[in-house]
Amino acid sequence: MAARTPAVTMPEFEPLLPELTDLNRAYWEGLAAGEVRLQRCRRCGAYQYPPESFCYHCPGTELAWEAVRGHGEVYSFIVVHQRYHPAFGEHLPYVVATVQLDEGPRMLGAMFEQPASISIGMRVRPRIERVTEDRAALFFAPEEG
Amino acid sequence: MVRLKDLSQRYCIVGVGNTAYGMNPGVSQLAHNVLAIRGALEDAGLEASDLDGVLTKAPTSTFPMLWAPRVAEALRVVPRVTGTLDQAGASNIGLIQYAISAIELGQAEMIAISYGDNPRTGTRASYARPRGDDALAGLFGAPSSYAMIARRHMHEYGTTHEQLGNVAITHRHHASMNPNAQYQDSITMEDYAHSRWVAEPFHLLDCCPVSDGGAAYVVTTEARARSLRTAPVYIEGLGQGHPAWDFYRRGELATSGAKVSGEVAFRSAGLGPTEIDFCEIYDCFTIVPLITLEEYGFCAKGEGGAFYEGSRTQVGGELPCNTSGGLLSETGMPGTQLVVEAVRQLRGECGPRQVAGAEVGLVSQQGGIMTTHATMILSTGGA
User: Fold this and answer.
1) What is the tally of structural domains in chain B?
2) Which of B228, B283, B247, B269 has the alpha carbon at shortest distance from B360?
3) Where are the domains of chain A?
């Protein structure tokens, strides 16, 4: 039973999962399926995040969801020591990176490696962890290793 | 280029007031606004009945609707002009711009502007709330976002922890000469470096405290100002400039709206950085004054850290900054107090922290994560 569902690895983040809406559903369903999906404008081809019903770059209003590699580069990062939320308690201190995705958008993402191993300019890849049986969340990890 | 209206010698700040900064149990948000405005009226020798405008910056901790009308009601004023501006910290100057517009249009002549909040003893939930879907990224609270900016500035320009520490130490030194400051004990570089990490690269002493407090000022015409008991302080120049986008999506993170708002304010005043005697800069975090001074052109881009070394920015130095202790040490209240301090400096009321011969002062205000920015240049009017 539930053999096809990957194991829940990070249940502590369940309280932080946003509610699904018409706008964000495809993004979260993508993560649950193990992939990063971004909206792409059918008119100008630009990828965008967060999702909207219009393109941020051109007058286009037709957007399609596409699975992307979601790799990128650390533009800046911090190391959080303060216990702001219990979900992150056992991960302290943890890194929050501003990631410049190769596809264009910038995203924020937590990284759970040794903070000293993180630097601006380093290449990162998506790290998708299952939070509940049917929801997953996006973090980042170094491309190497 | 757009022609700017010459403001000089036409509009004045005639009264300033504030409540006690720090921890004030039992003093409501409303009371901080009312008592600060009453203080400003008393300072100018005015009565509440003299006001025909009441403008507020909304309390950060709860952001109530229709706030300025409530403050007016509590003052027993029925204003001709009222409202609340949503530019976060930049509203402290944006509201002055609104007041001048109302005066220009003939709608009002004596306008009180206030901010008061009690996040220290009341609710402060809004200060550490997760940023929507970004909560899963682990980003909570303003220090984290500003730390992201600081890291980028350190990366691009080689800014050091010691240089950030100089900002905290300098502003605390000024607060030690300010009996109303929340923190008056001097700090050393060792204290700074040993204060706990909040979000690297920020130590605790890189961050302003969460404080209760209120501050207010009264704006009017030069003609009305001349008949009042205090020396008028003249509004010489105003400017705004807003990066606007969420911080992590901005092309260049180690910049701010001070560049544009400063250019406009300097141009409208017909003055330049060399004519400024002191600055009061929104210093919610240590990185901000460095970036702000760079963007204004007081030093080259990337040299803000070096600018703060030595005693240049201390009272007695070439460009004293945050003479009351600023947000970092006087009170973490979002910026209204900086206008109050600039006015008191120009009136020569600041005792041991007085900038000798202060004739022209600059106030820098910003809101959000350097999302909004406004600049005001004030003078004694050559008196």
Assistant:
1) 2
2) B269
3) 19-142
